[in-house]
Structure formats: structure tokens, C-alpha cells
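name: query_chain
kind: protein
chains: 1
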Amino acid sequence: MSLRDRIGIDIGRRMRLEDGIEWAAKHGVRHIDIQLDTAANAVTTFDDRRAAGVHAACDKYGIHLGLHTLSATNVAEYSPYLSDAMDQYLRSYVDIYPKLRIDTAIERLKRIAAYAEKKGARLLLENHNKEPETAEIHYVPFTLEEFLYYDQQIQSPNFRLSFTVNHAHLVPEGIAGFCDALDFSRVGEVRLADCIRLGHEVHLVPGKGDLDFADMFRRVEAKGYQGHYMSAFGSMDDMLAARDYLVAQAKKAGVV
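structure:
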């Protein structure tokens, strides 16, 4: 990329974001900053549809979008009420950024789901594992909220969820939270491995971590799930041998 292409423009509050993207594309500007505080660009005006449109336009023109908070805000604010308001203000800027990314992914999955319908294939979307804050890549969806959002947005008969219990065990919602919230008529697979509660991504042989498989089977089966379980840990022999352990855990929960 040339030096000229690396020099961006801070639009600030000068125009509506969508108009700013078009303006940047017309003038060959690759990087823009925008402020989401007032009028047409207030952060509260970015619903799912608008966020998806913004991200699609940035992808179309190859534009990198930066969100620039109002300089007048005091990030060192400590006064009662104002301090809480500042936290909420900054969080709103952070929250809108992944929304712009997620909606693009959803639109792509909608397209491939439509293609799968034509081909008679079934797509399964997994709840991914969390990554450390310092990781270069962060998977989406990995929280319950994100997982439910994807499911709600992609209403195709050929699209289902792949519920990975060990990934759910890594986040605060936990397996119990996922089981309570998920519509298991939408679950096409339950994936199994052990790990450490709220820990890191590992696929341990069942019994080597602290995941309660008996409770997991009880919760999943109680939701009316009749689909298959998929082992994903260790060696082929490990997975083969673990079936007896898993069946025994299910029996402990009253699952025959």
C-alpha cells in the first residue's frame, strides 16, 4: 500500500457514516474515523440492519473504519453518576465494533445456508472456545448471547447448532446456562470433551477435567434432544474407550 493510501481522513461528525463511506470510496480514501455521538450517527441508531449495511459497504470499497470517541469526554471522571455514565459510554463504542463484524459473518452464513438448501446439505454452527485477551484471534460466537444471536438470525431449515459442551464450560454461562436457553430442536449435534471450568481451550479425555458429564447428559436429554454426540479428544483409542465412561455417566443421571 502506498503512503498516500495509508493517509486517512477523520470525518468526525461532518456527515452520516454511510455517506462518509461513499465519499471516501469516491476519493480513494482507505481509512476513515467517525464519531458516534449525535444526530444520524448516534450509536443508538445502529440496529442490526444498519450495522450490516455499514460493514458490507466497508468491505465493498476496502475501507478501514475507526470509531473515534468524543474528545471532550473525561476518561478519568470519578464523580458519582458521571463515572458510571462514562463507563457506559465507552462500552457502547466497544460493543458496536464486533456488531459490525458479526453481521457480515451472518450475511455470509445466510448465503451458504441457502446454497446448502439447494444441495440438500446441512450446516452446523459450533459455539467456539474463548481465547485469552491477548490472543490475535477471537472466535465468534463463543458466548451464549452470541450463539443465540446467530441462531435467531439464520432461519434456514438446513442450518443447525453444534453444541460443544466443553466450550460452554469455559465461559460464565456454563453448560447449565446454555442448556436452559437453547432450543434443542435447533441443535443438530452435541460435541464432547473434558476441560477445566473457566479455564483454557483443551480437549481432555472425559474424567481428566472437572466437567460433570452426568449433569450434562441429564440437562441435554431433559430438553428432548435425540440427536448424536460427537467425541473430540485424544487419540482414536481414547475416544473409543471413553464411550463406556460416557454411558456410565449418563446412567448416573438416569439417562438410559
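note: The chain has two domains: 1-119, 122-256.
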